[in-house]
Amino acid sequence: MEFFEHELWNEKTASHDIALMRVSPPFEMNEFVQPAIVPPSDYTGEGDLFTVVGWGVFNECDPPTSPYVSFVPYKVQLPYFDREACKEAYAQLNYPVDESEICAG
Predict the structure, then answer these.
(1) In a domain, 105, yes or no
(2) At residue 59, does pLDDT exceed 90?
(3) Is 62 within the bounds of a domain?
(4) Sign of CA dihedral 20, 21, 25, 27
(5) pTM of the complete model beyond 0.70
(6) Is the dihedral angle over the CA atoms 40, 46, 49, 50 positive or is it negative?
(7) Is residue 14 part of a domain?
(8) Three-state SS for 44?
(9) What is the span of the domain harbouring residue 12?
(10) At a CB cut-off of 8 Å and minimum separation 6, what does 79 contact?
(11) Residue 86: CB partners within 8 Å, gap ≥ 6?
(12) Strand, helix or coil at 17?
């Protein structure tokens, strides 16, 4: 397997949180495993519904050994959330939202 992180990935801010994997044999596509659709650079997301799939911790503060860690993938659909309102909400937590991120929830 080969793993390619985004060259601008920032672990502290989660900016540019996307990566590619090359696997052999290929994954079997299913409800949770699908190719990512990368939107054009001018995409805002306004009015759209997003599908988020993943596993791991349910809260950024939970350690990997937490009882809240899932090893089963979960899937949820979330509506677009206004970027300026998102920036304001996360600013209160001292967490910057940059232009590589889409807000949903």
Answers:
(1) no
(2) no
(3) yes
(4) negative
(5) no
(6) positive
(7) yes
(8) coil
(9) 2-32+42-91
(10) 48, 49, 50, 104, 105
(11) 97, 103
(12) coil
